[in-house]
Amino acid sequence: MSEIVIKAENVSKQYRLGSVGTGSLAHDINRAWYKLRGKEDPYLKVGEENDRSAAGTSNYVWALQDINFEVEHGEVLGIIGRNGAGKSTLLKILSRTTMPTQGYIGINGRVASLLEVGTGFHPELTGRENVFLNGAILGMTKKEIGRKFDEIVHFAGVERYIDTPVKRYSSGMHVRLAFGVAAHLEPEILIVDEVLAVGDADFQNKALGKMKEVSSKEGRTVLFVSHNMSAVRNLCTRAMLLVNGKMKTEGLPDDVINDYLLENANHSLEQQFDDTATAPGNDKVRFKSMRVVPQVATPNEAMTVKTPINIEFEFYNMMGKTPINTSLMLCTLADDVVFNAISEVQELDNGLYKAVLEIPGDFLNDGGYYINVMIVYNASKVIYHFDKAVIFSLEDRRSFTNWHRKWVGIVRPQFPFLISRIS
Fold this sequence. Notes:
Blueprint: E1 4-16, H1 24-36, E2 48-49, E3 60-72, E4 76-80, H2 87-94, E5 102-107, E6 111-114, H3 127-137, H4 142-156, H5 171-184, E7 189-192, H6 201-216, E8 221-225, H7 229-235, E9 238-243, E10 246-251, H8 253-264, E11 270-272, E12 285-294, E13 309-317, E14 322-332, E15 337-342, E16 346-348, E17 351-359, E18 367-377, E19 381-394
Helix pairs in contact: 3-4, 3-5, 4-5, 5-6
């Protein structure tokens, strides 16, 4: 049986909005009076959901509400969600930077957290001094830090500046050294927020590789918050989705990421542009319409992975006789390119034209997609690029399989694949 190293039970965190200190003494006295009488905190009843896009009527908001999960030893848990969903608040609670308003957090092991660039670093101290200071904060002995020191500095790539005060470091150098300390000083649990976005591509790849190494080879536990869905998919063994402070989904990374992308996509199977002056385009071409047309028997039939689909768009050519072709790129909501279809070059006069691309059924995987369309001059120069012209999703409703999760792969064509008896 796997060891549970993190256990969260009904964890909630409430914050008071507005200016800090205004009216807080009266609220604190009221809380104390209710507690003295053995009654529930009165302000726990008035808090509103953490929806940052909507105005509220209460000065109290639930940044997190009723969060329950367990993390096993050696797991890499990805935590995803929109800005303001409560991800960083959860990590701060797990790091003991703040305490939950309600609920229980149990942690078995030493925790190293990288929540903000340079957390625990003193700007006046050198990189060398900060490595030892930060290591001591994480509970390491001087001997342990010294044993790992060269490896940390080499990983961070700051050998030349290690005896320079960190106030002179760039943000990228800062986060390199901070991550190097947190990852190399052997905590049982490593908590990493979106700070890796500060580093360059080389460092990000190195950091992701290190997190994969400490989890798979060294058996340590990693909690990883990121808006980089590719990193979450490749690194994490499990993921959870937070929406307005509540946990919506938990499970395999591909399933959770798909839910997240579909939740945030503005689905539109059709766009019609009746006003030519404001339609997408320029003085050379203008779009009149863009649509996804499922080839179904009845209007109410659901669009699934088995449904043939036509991608249709209409555009005006206003350049006179011109060699034109069109390019249609189909992408997943995770920005993976499924294919790029290019039409033949044709001499087009002024006028309204329609292009149709047919996608057969049993080709695309279940999930969300968007379409980019380009009008191109003679297959060489882009005249206009219409980004995310339409967004749509497909669902697998087949009943012959017991596999109830998203299939592996961007596409899932149903090739002939039969078993026959030969003896």
